[in-house]
Amino acid sequence: MDKTTANSGQDREFTRDEVRDHNETDSLWVIVESKVYDITHFLGEHPGGRDILREYGGMDATNRFREVEHSADAIEMMKAYKIGRVVGEDIATQWDDGDGGDGSTQQLAEQYSITVGWLPMLIGIGVTLISYYVINYSF
Ligand code: HEM
């Protein structure tokens, strides 16, 4: 990969309005985790097809991108298309695509486990409370 191209201009900041203007195939940008990617030249190469990328052109594709659970290779590939970040959004605590250095997929996994870990606990508390009321007030 051409490192010079991959790393140039990555710290530019864009507003979400600016990104929204790039929604055509001759200039197609998406936002993933508050970072801006110019995927114009990636459309024909995307293993998931060009249609899904066109659908999200100019938009925030974070949720859809996560749903697919892209591989570590895919996340590595993204770096080449990053052109900057969304102005004013703190990405320090969010998932990083690995350009910060260590363990991008590990961070992603941690983020998932926090979400997945809290849900059963809340359901458990809910079931306990409901059982308590049923036992106390129905007999
Ligand atoms: C530069 C950004 C992107 C790169 C480098 C990328 C790369 C890839 C790669 C390598 C795959 C094959 C499976 C894997 O290795 O994970 C894939 C599949 C896929 N991607 Fe992306 N992708 C990007 C952006 C997106 C976005 C923004 C979306 C949705 C809005 C998306 C949706 C999908 C879907 C639906 C598949 C097919 C999954 C399947 O076959 O089950 N991708 N992508």
TrEMBL record:
The keyword Metal-binding applies. Gene3D superfamilies: Cytochrome b5-like heme/steroid binding domain. Signal peptide: none annotated. It is found in: Membrane. The keyword ATP-binding does not apply. GO terms for molecular function: heme binding; metal ion binding. GO terms for cellular component: membrane. The chain crosses the membrane at residues 116-135. Residues 11-87 form the Cytochrome b5 heme-binding domain. Keywords: Heme, Iron, Membrane, Metal-binding, Transmembrane, Transmembrane helix. InterPro entries: Cyt_B5-like_heme/steroid-bd (IPR001199), Cyt_B5-like_heme/steroid_sf (IPR036400), Cyt_B5_heme-BS (IPR018506), Cytochrome_b5 (IPR050668). Belongs to the cytochrome b5 family. This is Cytochrome b5 heme-binding domain-containing protein. It comes from Oppiella nova.
